[in-house]
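Regression test case RT-17, inverse folding.

Input:
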């Protein structure tokens, strides 16, 4: 294929607007997969993706398309929609010249539509607006067209109205890809230069890097160098992704495909890295800003004997997801473990679910925290840390007020789009989360877009769920980093019969300490089953208790039922209890169900 017959594009959209469904249709129409019901969302390969019905990892597929008697090579990169995975979107975009911006004909423009549009716009890509789900009874493509015109300054006539589900007008999407998106500017006779835009790890084959060839060509057996580490590799295998791997002899300028070159670790194929021929060094591509972890949590084995197993599971999972940061950590209460950093809470939950599903690991996850900062005032500590400013990702290590001159918390700029009937409720919710309104505009006669500056910790755990429930699912939310602000912070401990529960230690804003502490005690009271003795549940700042609940003792003896019964029945009952206990954590004498911890953090 000469480059003028190549188009590289990705599909971006708000969650559930139909990216994966459209991708399926495009794959079918170009013969990459058979038309059948079993081929639903073929690009969502992971178990979690299928369970949750979301795309987590971007996927690539090369399609052959016949247009007006000419054969074209279309490289499609499917991207995730959720805000936590925005990073994947920006990566995918850098390998493309255009995007299909999908908008649901019923829901209209949503918060992530806006965020994703700007990612594409700033990268100067051609944007083809596609209004999907026109088959729905409540579809209003005209209204959506005018929103797109108003917000993105794209003439409404440019919108393609389709039903990805039924296949209506999908042909027009392919035509627009060829007609409107420019071919890649890449020359086959230039030196070889490729961008690594994704990578994964396979136990048998090593690192599989997804690359976009920006110039020249590469063939099997070539000796290539990765610019970042300057190491040389021999190309063992390469090819197209259709979406299954399809080996070829070479890849040339403008093409997108995969390459295997004896790299043993994804760190060797860093995302954003440049590959070139050993004999023809080129200037490295600008690459990407590294993903920044926004949510940190401790992960510990349920039992220290499972430490090695969990370690190798975490290692293997992070091999495929370089956006997770890992640090060894240990605690008196929980033993040896790790502190992991994630892009957001969903990212953390997905990681945890994959650990349990794919590696059968049983993990204790501590209260998630955002990366706070402290400006130290103690000369001794400054010397110890080598700097005045420290980042705190573990609440247990929160430095005391007496050695700190200022605490800082991360803030984000949030975008909320909602039907105007819910604005009142949403504004009160935002105020209760210490948010400051920055902007509010109507995007049509019924929908409002609001911008708020939020402390990140106020939205990390449950803000999105609350927003959804108080707007009957209609409001959408997205956010971007906006730096740090000064904040009056304290460390809040939760005690069970006087013993601190390390999993639940959190950092809170001073004004919110009492409400947070009280609510955590109440929810912990509900989450812990009654036991043989009374349990005091307390929230404390230092040695000062600020809230308390009591779990009354449990009177009945489980074995009473078996009184006089045969011994095997008694054993069975005890065994059942023991199995139940496996999922319990012992704090002092108190048994706490493992899933209690995360539930306790969710506010009503
Ligand atoms: P994420 O991968 O989670 O970001 O979602 P997505 O944008 O890929 O959406 P997906 O393709 O999974 O579709 C979401 C839902 O909308 C699914 O239940 C689809 O069946 C449905 N859907 C997609 N396209 C259409 C359409 O044209 N009409 C109707 N009625 N439903 C559609």
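Golden output:
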């Amino acid at each position: 294929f000469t480059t003028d017959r190549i188009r590289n594009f990705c599909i971006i959209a708000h969650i559930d607007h139909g990216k994966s469904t459209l991708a399926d249709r495009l794959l079918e129409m170009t013969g990459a997969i058979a038309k059948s019901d079993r081929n639903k969302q073929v690009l969502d390969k992971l178990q979690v993706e299928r369970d949750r019905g979301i795309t987590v990892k971007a996927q690539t597929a090369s399609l052959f398309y016949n247009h007006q008697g000419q054969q074209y090579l279309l490289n499609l990169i499917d991207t995730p929609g959720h805000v936590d995975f925005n990073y994947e979107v920006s990566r995918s975009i850098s390998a493309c010249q255009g995007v299909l911006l999908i908008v649901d004909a019923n829901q209209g423009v949503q918060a992530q539509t806006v965020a994703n549009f700007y990612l594409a716009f700033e990268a100067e890509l051609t944007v083809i607006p596609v209004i999907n789900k026109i088959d729905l009874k409540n579809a209003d493509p005209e209204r959506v067209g005018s929103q797109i015109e108003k917000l993105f300054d794209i003439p409404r006539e440019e919108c393609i109205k389709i039903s990805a589900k039924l296949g209506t007008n999908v042909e027009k999407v392919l035509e627009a890809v060829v007609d409107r998106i420019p071919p890649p500017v890449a020359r086959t006779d230039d030196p070889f230069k490729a961008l690594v835009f994704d990578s994964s790890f396979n136990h048998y084959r090593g690192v599989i890097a997804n690359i976009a060839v920006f110039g020249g060509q590469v063939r099997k057996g070539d000796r290539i160098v990765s610019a970042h580490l300057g190491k040389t590799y021999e190309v063992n295998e390469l090819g197209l992704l259709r979406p299954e791997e399809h080996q070829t002899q070479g890849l040339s300028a403008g093409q997108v495909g995969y390459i295997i070159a004896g790299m043993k670790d994804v760190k060797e194929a860093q995302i954003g890295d440049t590959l070139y021929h050993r004999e023809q060094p080129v200037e490295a591509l600008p690459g990407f800003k590294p993903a920044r972890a926004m949510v940190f949590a401790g992960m510990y084995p349920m039992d220290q004997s499972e430490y090695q197993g969990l370690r190798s599971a975490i290692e293997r999972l992070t091999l495929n997801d370089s956006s997770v940061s890992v640090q060894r950590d240990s605690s008196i209460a929980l033993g040896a473990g790790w502190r992991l950093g994630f892009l957001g809470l969903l990212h953390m939950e997905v990681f945890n679910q994959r650990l349990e599903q794919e590696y059968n690991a049983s993990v204790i996850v501590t209260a998630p925290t955002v990366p706070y900062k402290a400006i130290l005032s103690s000369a001794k500590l400054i010397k110890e840390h080598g700097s005045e400013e420290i980042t705190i990702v573990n609440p247990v290590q929160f430095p005391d007020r007496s050695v700190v001159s200022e605490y800082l918390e991360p803030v984000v700029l949030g975008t909320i789009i909602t039907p105007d009937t819910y604005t009142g409720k949403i504004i009160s919710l935002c105020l209760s989360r210490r948010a400051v309104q920055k902007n509010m505009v109507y995007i049509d006669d019924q929908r409002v877009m609001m911008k708020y500056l939020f402390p990140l910790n106020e939205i990390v755990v449950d803000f999105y769920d609350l927003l959804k429930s108080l707007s009957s699912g209609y409001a959408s939310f997205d956010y971007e980093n906006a730096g740090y602000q000064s904040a009056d912070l304290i460390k809040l401990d939760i005690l069970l019969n006087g013993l601190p529960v390390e999993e639940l230690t959190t950092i809170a804003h001073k004004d919110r300490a009492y409400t947070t502490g009280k609510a955590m005690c109440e929810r912990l009271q509900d989450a812990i089953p009654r036991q043989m003795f009374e349990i005091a549940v307390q929230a404390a700042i230092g040695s000062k208790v600020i809230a308390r609940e009591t779990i009354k003792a449990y009177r009945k003896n489980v074995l009473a039922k078996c009184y006089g019964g045969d011994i095997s029945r008694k054993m069975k009952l005890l065994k059942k209890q023991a199995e139940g206990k496996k999922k319990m954590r012992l704090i002092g004498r108190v048994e706490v169900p493992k899933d209690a911890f995360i539930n306790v953090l969710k506010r009503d």
